[in-house]
Predict the 3D structure of the following.
Amino acid sequence: MKDRVQEQALEAVRRSRPEDYDGHTEFDRMSPAQRLAWLDEATLFVWKQKARASRAEKIGRLK
């Protein structure tokens, strides 16, 4: 079963448009609180994806 964070990330990707990936985040226009929230979510996403990849790699070695 997918966890809540993964579901939210997938939903964000589904709603995204090509122009969302042009490298322009308007990070400089965010408030300090918004910047921290964005960084927190991004860090959590990366951490979970790395952990998932590491588990998959370990499982692959066991087969």
About this structure: The chain has a mean pLDDT of 79.
